[in-house]
Amino acid sequence: MDVNQAKQEHLLALKGDLFGQLMKQDPSTIKGAESLMLGEMLTLPQNFGNIFLGETFSSYISVHNDSTQIVKDILVKADLQTSSQRLNLSASNSAVAELKPECCIDDVIHHEVKEIGTHILVCAVSYTTQFGEKLYFRKFFKFQVNTFLVRTATDEVFLEAQIQNITTSPMFMEKVSLEPTIMYNVTELNTVASGDDGESTFGKMSYLQPMDTRQYLYCLKPKAEYAEKAGVIKGVTMIGKLDIVWRTNLGERGRLQTSQLQRMAPGYGDIRLSLEMIPDTVNLEEPFDIVCKITNCSERTMDLVVEMCNTRSIHWCGISGRQLGKLSPGASLLLPLTIFSSVQGLQSISGLRLTDTFLKRTYEYDDIAQVCVICPYTSNEC
């Protein structure tokens, strides 16, 4: 052995001793297990806080023989006790033949959390000493499972989902989607058109900070085969499920799927009036066309007459008081109308009246929609 090689080996030995001494002096090192290089920062405390519904609970279990004797028939068992069940998370239920001094038995357990409330991880170890004595000990680790706060606000065709991060660390929102029921088609309204691909309204980095709330918007439209059945859609309250996927600040993936979201069944009354076509922007004092859809939601046939009443800004064109004819229960008709506005700005379309001649009952429709009225000329000419 030459001098240089001897110096290198001596230096490595010094480094090893220094590292060992540093590990012994480190206040986070577990006493008696310095060689494992396992500090208390990586040791599971008895009560380690919160995990959130949909996340995967993972834990590294290490059983270390810190005695000077060989032990035999070592059985390590890890169970997770919830409020409703006890789950075995051990990868193997067979015993290890023997464990020498300063050796370990290692296992990694995983569990996708699907219940809220208190969870207890129970780690049990049984073994036999070299004198034939059978010994047994257990350790308990308790944690709480919470959930995201999800609120919904719905009307006829739109759903707003408010998702709040009630954890203490930022989360990356990987996916938030709505899975509609069989009667609906859904359109996500959470992107802004930009080139070929839409850009998220929340930016490129979709982080949700602690206690922050984010609104996701979806448009629900009845499928064609159900849209014509006013009575069927009127009674529908289930609209779909939210599927939420996120990652924690350590990259761990979590997933939560809500139960069926419900809406209040819309009270259309006897007649439902909806707009099939209307322009977004129109010129001042220039006629434009709209198309209304009238649906008989009652259980009787109606004989309808349409009346158009002018407002301060909206003026109807055509004959008021004309007959629309008979409309059977559940049936619909399209009503094209022409109007113009005499005032600039965002104007509300109002003044439509439908009268059922059978019962002499009049249905009034105001604030049907809004349209932006602009002046096509210069400011001086307007």
Write up what this structure looks like:
Residues 146-266 form the Trafficking protein particle complex subunit 13 middle domain. This protein has 382 residues and is mainly beta. It has three domains: 2-24 and 44-146, Immunoglobulins (Immunoglobulin-like), CATH 2.60.40; 149-264, Immunoglobulins (Immunoglobulin-like, Sandwich); 271-374, Immunoglobulins (Immunoglobulin-like, Sandwich). The chain contains three helices and 30 strands. The chain has helices spanning 3-25, 224-227, 230-234; strands at 47-52, 56-64, 71-81, 86-88, 96-99, 104-112, 117-128, 134-146, 149-154, 158-164, 171-180, 184-188, 191-192, 199-200, 207-208, 213-222, 238-247, 253-257, 261-262, 271-277, 281-283, 288-296, 302-308, 314-317, 322-327, 332-341, 345-349, 352-356, 361-365, 369-374. Strands 1, 3, 4, 5, 7 and 8 form a six-stranded mixed β-sheet that branches. Strands 11, 15, 17, 18 and 19 form a five-stranded antiparallel β-sheet that branches. A four-stranded antiparallel β-sheet has the order 9-10-16-12. Residues 1-16 and 34-42 have low confidence and may be disordered.
Q: How many H/I helical runs?
A: 3
Decide which structural class fits the backbone: mainly beta
Number of strands: 30
- Can you identify the CATH superfamily of the largest domain? Immunoglobulins
Query: Remind me, CATH topology of the largest domain?
Result: Immunoglobulin-like
Under the CATH scheme, the architecture of the largest domain is Sandwich
* Gyration radius, in Å: 35 Å
N/C terminus separation: 101 Å
Q: What helical percentage do the residues reach?
A: under 10%
Main β-sheet description: 6 strands, mixed
Estimate the mean pLDDT confidence: 79
Outline, from the CA principal axes? elongated
In terms of per-residue confidence, which ranges show pLDDT below 50 for 5 or more consecutive residues? Answer: 1-16, 34-42
